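Work Package 3 committed the consortium to producing structural models of liganded targets before the mid-term review. Because experimental data for this complex are still outstanding, the team generated a predictive model from sequence and the ligand definition alone, so that downstream docking and mutagenesis planning could proceed in parallel. The input record is reproduced below exactly as it was submitted to the modelling pipeline, together with the SMILES string for zinc ion.
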Amino acid sequence: MSESDLRPDRGARVSVRITRVGHGQTLYILSLSDHYQGLFTHWKDPHSVYCPDDGTCYWRKCQEEQIWKGYTPVLFWNTSTANWLPTVLEISEKLELDLRGKWKRGQEWVLTRAQELDRKKKPVRGRLAVVQRPSENLPEEFDILPVLSAVFRVAHVKLGKQNPLPMPQTMLPFESAAPKALRPDDQAPASPEVLQKLRETLVGGFKLPNDPKNGRKP
Ligand SMILES: [Zn+2]
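The resulting structure, written out as tokens with the ligand in place, is given here.
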């Protein structure tokens, strides 16, 4: 009896595809490579087409309309079969900013994408959940080129393009007084006691129309 005969159905071989995180989805992944690699695409509704980015691209506004995408071999947790399945993760320009400088083989990441409730596309966000899983018997990284060639229907897909998005600049907030326009008297709001005193002063100083002091006769 061979080893494959002993495997349950859920251990059957699976074809490797590209996985994207859809709106409202969460994906748990395990990285198999120390790297991800990128290429340029163009959006030709309803799917992306490969851009060779070498002067031979047929796209009319090639340079202005390039969309970067990254790819890397990973395992994703399949809840229905309760095991890790191989797939090629597609990394968007925004998601790459979360992975940049951190991505290594053997890491566990949680990728999430908010629901699209207001017709605005929501970006995929990545959070590093486990910096380094015990390497145990983590499968070897596999070649992603055959999968990309099949998806883009191009015999020779070239990788190695960098995400053009720069890292967002981050700075600390400045702790100081609120804008002058929001505090006209430059004072703290009056306490209830102060307000009461103010009311008494106003009532006491109010002159009635028939008050003799007004110089009028009743
Ligand atoms: Zn192009």
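Reviewers should note the following from the model. The pocket of zinc ion is lined by residues 42, 51, 53, 57, 59, 62, 66 (CB under 6 Å). These observations will guide the Year 2 experiments.
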